[in-house]
Amino acid sequence: MKKYKIFIIAWALIASVQCYAQSIFNELLPSTAKVMFIDSVVVDKDKFLEKIPLNPESGTIAYYDDFFHQKTQVPCGLFRNELGDRCYFALGDTLKGTNLFSIDRLGNEWSEPRLIEEFTEDFSNINYPFLMADGFSLYFSAESENSIGGLDIFLTMFDSSEGTFFKPENYGLPFNSTANEYFIAFDELDSLGWLVSDRYQPEGKVCIYTFVPTFPRKRIGADIDKDELINYAKLKSIKDTWGFGNRKEALARLAAMQQRTSVARGGKGILFIVNDRQTCQSESDFLSPTAKKLFSQYFELYNMLQLNEQRLENQRNAYIDGDTKKKAELKQPILRLEHDIEQQKKDLKDLEKKIRNAENSVVKKS
């Protein structure tokens, strides 16, 4: 009987929390942002920051232990601004959770960490900060009484006159959900953004949504019915948002940005072997003008192949888990992707030969 009462109390508490979360969702629903989500990819939860191709001009994102070479009990996100003189990072443990800290670079050394105390009372498990290029708008993930689900994305502004942050606000829909949202980042140079969430994902996985941000924020019009609005708010299908902008143009910006950032990071992911004595990581490493031009095509095709292989993996997983109707819907797209990937691999091989021949012919003459 006692266990039964405990079960009833626990069930009542869960129902109460869910009811409160639903009330917050309903409150934020009319303000759902009009945002085009151009792509999504499912990755492992423990290293998702490494999969976000943020421009160096927008700052640096990393894990605390990778940046400072100090092991942490839980994954802790870190953001370093473009100038490299300020860091925001999370730090904590499994018992007390994580809080947000900031440090400044003074000469060749970092200052002592400053706990951002404005967040400690109303927020818990604060993590994954991101600071906009304006130096004032700070985003982070946390739990609070104003969360829709578990972890939500919050936005706060820095008050330079007081040297403190204003009260953070829930960033709303469709960026937050009844699941966990871990991170949001914006690349103003290419007008792109990334949202990391575990909505609709199995344990240990998160989805990185790529979107086109709008500043100032725009609401979805009031001329759609409530069910359609709820689907937008919950991101039931990113395809439903493609009518909000030019997706083809945004994908082209994304591909170009991925090429630039990969080259800026030393060609991470591509090490092109010309011969036994020469390897190249960017166009500037080649002597042949023809090889330079061909390598640019090679790099773009390589990135496209990586994206398609990830999409194929996601679709295969969805096919395995789907019902009969879902399997029927996915069969042809999977076959098309498999064909495209096979052709792209052949094209890469052909480009490799042409690049090597062009570069080796110049090397022999020099």
What is the string of helix and strand elements? HEEHEEEEEEEEEEEEEHHEEHH
The tally of helices reads 6
Termini separation comes to 90 Å
Radius of gyration: 23 Å
Specify the structural class.
Answer: alpha+beta
Approximate strand percentage? 15-25%
What sort of overall outline do the alpha carbons produce when their principal axes are compared? Answer: globular
Counting DSSP E segments of at least 2 residues, the number of strands comes to 17
What can you tell me about this protein's structure?
The structure is a single chain. By secondary structure, the protein is an alpha+beta fold. The protein has helices spanning 2-28, 64-68, 226-234, 247-264, 289-321, 324-365, and strands at residues 36-44, 60-63, 77-80, 86-93, 97-106, 109-110, 114-115, 124-131, 137-143, 152-159, 164-165, 169-170, 181-187, 192-197, 205-212, 272-273, 279-280. The strands form four sheets. Strands 2, 3, 4, 5, 6 and 7 form a six-stranded antiparallel β-sheet that branches. A hairpin with a 5-residue loop joins strand 8 and strand 9. Helix 4 packs across helix 5 (289-321) and helix 5 packs antiparallel against helix 6. The longest helix has 42 residues, at 324-365.
Write the layout of secondary structure elements.
Elements: H1 2-28, E1 36-44, E2 60-63, H2 64-68, E3 77-80, E4 86-93, E5 97-106, E6 109-110, E7 114-115, E8 124-131, E9 137-143, E10 152-159, E11 164-165, E12 169-170, E13 181-187, E14 192-197, E15 205-212, H3 226-234, H4 247-264, E16 272-273, E17 279-280, H5 289-321, H6 324-365
Antiparallel strand pairs: 1-15, 2-3, 3-4, 4-5, 5-6, 5-7, 8-9, 9-10, 10-11, 10-12, 13-14, 14-15, 16-17
